[in-house]
UniProtKB/TrEMBL annotation:
Belongs to the copine family. GO terms for molecular function: calcium-dependent phospholipid binding; metal ion binding. GO terms for biological process: cellular response to calcium ion. This is Copine-9. PANTHER family: COPINE (PTHR10857), COPINE-9 (PTHR10857:SF112). The gene is CPNE9. Keywords: Calcium, Metal-binding, Repeat. It comes from Leptonychotes weddellii (Weddell seal). GO terms for cellular component: plasma membrane.
């Protein structure tokens, strides 16, 4: 498909009125459904010297050929400094990106000498195909690096070095849906902050205030996330806990009490059952403190530790106002849980700055404890206030929240499965029995 666009200037600064400002050519090609991932490693030998005071700083650029004969960059290797015999690190690339599933389509590879100012020097090129690359699973493949200009000018020109494909392997790329279709169950657990910093639930200023006209921020967050994630849980039974409250009748402080007041079976029937138990707890317990996250994280982690075959994956939703009293213990719990089939969602409600919650989210800096880093990022934190619709539309607010809160769960599940080399099971027959309910945390 080809589309030509000719932009029109909207102001004198963007072009000369009445004159053509340029042409943008858009090309598109239907992607194949190939989901294989190719991993390869290459090295080079006796590349041309390009640096006056040194050798060369070589890197490779891979191009996929398109249906119209053009080429599109699909991968760049790292630069290996000051050598004519570089060994590049292994890298992975989707076969779809490399050749769009056409194993005989040309793959062009350019070899460049890196320059700091971006004017990289061309050393040479060679072509291959996915089918030819795949032969390296059994033997090394050596390619001559040729520079067309040098070949034309020098009669005795042989090549500008060689590139050797050291290894090549192919693995299937599985998706979140593949695991769900294969029977992997998401087990959803809820933990709600009942500490006094949330304010008196009977007062409109409280984050727990139950207005007859609208849900509290806690209830909205619970409903938004739970109504989506419950579709991936076959039994629709959710353990639900509160923390940081004094319990009747003796006033015992608890950091992990069942919202339904049933220590033997903390399960609630669906999200509506969780909400009902939450509202009932607000009427019976006394908001207190301190705010401990570690007990409920460790509770879910103990259940997750018993499942290692990929059949179950645990998701813990913590809704809190952001004040945390056991940061050291919480980090330790997260680091330990990072090796388990488990993810933690933290939704912050209220006006707090949430620095501690941001620290627990390992997007930028992986959580660590006592010199030990989390094996993978399992925490997703979002502040609820960022998703509140200004017009007061609660449905829109919850939809925005759910979208971002659940965005990382599929990749976190996949990262666990990949590190454990667990492949999805074949989808069960339509008349098969449902998977037995897992042991609840």
């Amino acid at each position: 498909m080809y589309t030509t666009l000719t932009p029109k200037p909207t102001s004198p600064n963007r072009g000369v009125p009445g004159k053509k400002c340029g042409t943008i050519l858009l090309t598109a090609e239907e992607l194949s459904n190939c989901r294989d991932i190719a991993t390869m490693q290459l090295c080079a030998n006796k590349l041309d010297k390009k640096d006056f005071f040194g050798k060369s700083d070589p890197f490779l650029v891979f191009y996929r050929s398109n249906e119209d004969g053009t080429f599109t960059i699909c991968h760049k290797t790292e630069v290996v400094k000051n050598t004519l015999n570089p060994v590049w690190q292994p890298f992975s690339i989707p076969v779809r990106a490399l050749c769009n599933g056409d194993y005989d389509r040309t793959v062009k590879i350019d070899v460049y000498d890196w320059d700091r100012d971006g004017s990289h020097d061309f050393i040479g090129e060679f072509t291959t195909s996915y089918r030819e690359l795949s032969k390296a699973q059994n033997q090394f493949t050596v390619y001559e690096v040729l520079n067309p200009r040098k070949k034309c000018k020098k009669k005795k020109y042989v090549n500008s070095g060689t590139v050797t494909l050291l290894s090549f392997s192919v693995d299937s790329e599985f998706t979140f849906v593949d695991y769900i279709k294969g029977g992997t169950q998401l087990n959803f657990t809820v933990a709600i902050d009942f500490t006094a910093s949330n304010g008196n639930p009977l007062q409109p200023t409280s984050l727990h205030y139950m207005s007859p006209y609208q849900l509290s921020a806690y209830a909205m967050a619970l409903k938004a996330v739970g109504e989506i994630i419950q579709d991936y849980d076959s039994d629709k039974l959710f353990p639900a806990y509160g923390f940081g409250a004094k319990l009747p009748p003796e006033g015992r402080i608890s950091h992990q009490f069942p919202l339904n007041n049933n220590d033997e079976d903390p399960n609630c029937a669906g999200i509506e059952g969780v909400l009902e138990s939450y509202f009932q707890s607000l009427r019976t317990v006394q908001l207190y403190g301190p705010t401990y996250f570690a007990p409920v994280i460790n509770q879910v982690a103990r259940a997750a530790a018993k499942i290692s075959d990929g059949s179950q994956y645990y998701v813990l939703l913590i809704i809190t106002d952001g004040v945390i009293s056991d940061m050291t213990q919480t980090k330790e719990a997260i680091v330990s849980a990072s090796s388990l089939p488990m993810s933690i969602i933290i939704v912050g409600v209220g006006p707090a700055m949430f620095e501690a919650m941001e620290e627990l989210d390992g997007d930028d800096v992986r959580v660590s404890s006592r010199g030990r880093y989390a094996e993978r990022d399992i925490v997703q934190f979002v502040p609820f206030r960022d998703y509140v619709d200004r017009s007061g539309n609660q449905v829109l607010s919850m939809a925005r929240l759910a979208k971002d809160v659940l965005a990382e769960i599929p990749e976190q599940l996949l990262s666990y499965m990949r590190t454990r080399d667990i492949q999805p099971r074949p989808p069960p027959p339509a008349n098969s029995r449902p998977t037995p309910a897992p042991e609840q945390p």
